[in-house]
Design a protein that fits this description.
This protein has 404 residues and is of the alpha/beta class. Helices cover 41% and strands 19% of the residues. It folds into three domains: 147 residues, HUPs (Rossmann fold, 3-Layer(aba) Sandwich); 136 residues, Argininosuccinate synthetase, chain A, domain 2 (Alpha-Beta Complex); 37 residues.
């Protein structure tokens, strides 16, 4: 194990794992540690993290409010593509990692640190996401991943280490945690422990961002989401910043039990993983964005976007946000959003969100063309005969050979 590290920037939450990592870095590498805590709207008080870092002798402590940047520069670009991984997952954890990695590297450069460290385990996706980001943004950076180096491979050993070094431990950490969580403005996830058996149902007490659908209001609620060039800018006529808008949609979705997901997903490292997710605002946003695109995007453009989306989602899930191919896809996606402007009306009711109306100054929908009433001069139905015969030509030739 090399000890040629002078200063390391640690992604630090102040929880048991990263508190142990902080002391372990100081002890093992005999280096100065800079802590970085990102406020991504996880809903936790972050000042205790500062106090714990100070108690550990940390001189340079960064606690950054990244909520607006997170939604504006990461969540919104992803939603322009209607991104879902494996058909259902809205990538709430995945999309936060490139921003954390970016800010860590910025702090490393600003403080003269020669290394960065994270608390991701050697079994998960996050180690890949963090480190691909680090290397993409600063190729010569040294990366320390304690979970791949130390022998503190159990909760008991972590607690023993913490007690030995007088690291404060929350009372609930001494017992067996029923699951692990990750939270930000877009979602909260629950994984591990009792949830590792995919047959075991999630307990209702676990959920924090939504009511059970069956206990949601008995009357549906209609809301309106306004878009400009593919990004949501207002809810119910009120202009909001990106972070404030997502917060509002989270509130509305949670009230109606929207956005719960029980998923077994395929991790990039090769194993299957079961997770429970709550993404109330994101679920509404996805439905709204697809609603406005339905009248503003040309068929060819829309279908091409749908074909590219799984590849784009996979890039984000696997940690390739900073890759050239993701950036290329983003440029194409963003170009498609030039006229994705207008308003969508949605119905929220007992765990579901559905489009109830849509309008746009750039709408490609023509009532004159689709009407079942008198359409003389708008569309000559006789043209369809030739269109069908030309498209059927290869099928007729194929089957004529078979019957010959």
């Amino acid at each position: 194990m090399s000890k040629k590290i002078k200063k390391v920037v640690l992604a630090y939450s102040g929880g048991l794992d990263t508190s142990v990592i902080l002391r372990w870095l100081q002890e093992t590498y005999e280096c100065e540690v800079v802590t970085f805590t990102a406020d991504l709207g996880q809903g936790e008080e972050l000042d205790p993290a500062r106090k714990k870092a100070q108690m550990a002798g940390v001189k340079e402590i960064f606690i950054d409010d990244l909520r607006e940047e997170f939604v504006r520069d990461f969540v919104f670009p992803m939603f322009r593509a209607n991104t879902v991984y494996e058909g259902t997952y809205l990538l709430g954890t995945s999309i936060a990692r490139p921003l954390i990695a970016k800010r860590q590297i910025e702090i490393a450069i600003a403080t003269g640190a020669d290394a960065v460290a994270h608390g991701a385990t050697g079994k998960g996706n996050d180690q890949v996401r963090f480190e691909l980001g680090y290397y993409a943004l600063k190729p010569d950076i040294k990366v320390i991943a304690p979970w791949r180096e130390w022998d503190l491979n159990s909760r008991t050993k972590l607690i023993e280490y913490a007690e030995k070094h007088q690291i404060p431990i929350a009372k609930d950490k001494r017992g067996e945690a029923p699951y692990s969580t990750d939270a930000n403005m877009l979602h909260i996830s629950y994984e591990g422990k009792v949830l590792e058996d995919p047959w075991v149902a999630a307990h209702e007490d676990m959920f924090t961002r939504s009511v059970p659908p069956e206990k949601a209001p008995n009357e549906p609620e209609l809301i309106e989401v306004e878009f400009e060039r593919g990004d949501a800018v207002a809810v119910n006529g009120k202009k909001l910043s990106p972070a404030a808008l997502l917060t509002k949609l989270n509130e509305l979705g949670g009230k109606h039990g929207i956005g719960r997901l029980d998923l077994v997903e395929n991790r990039y490292v090769g194993m299957k993983s079961r997770g429970i997710y709550e993404t109330p605002g994101g679920t509404i946003l996805l439905a709204a964005h697809r609603g406005i695109e339905s009248i503003t995007l040309d068929r060819g453009a829309g279908h091409l976007k749908d074909e590219m989306m799984p590849r784009y989602a996979e890039l984000i899930y696997n940690g390739y946000w900073w890759s050239p191919e993701r950036k290329m896809l983003q440029s194409l996606i963003d170009a498609s959003q030039e006229n994705v402007t207008g308003t969508v009306r949605l119905k929220l009711f007992k765990g579901s969100v559905s489009v109830d109306g849509r309008k746009s100054p750039f709408s490609l929908y023509s009532e004159k063309m689709v009407t079942f009433e008198d359409d003389r001069g708008a569309y000559d139905q006789k043209d369809a005969a030739g269109f069908i015969k030309l498209n059927a030509l290869r099928l007729r030739l194929l089957n004529s050979k078979k019957s010959a």
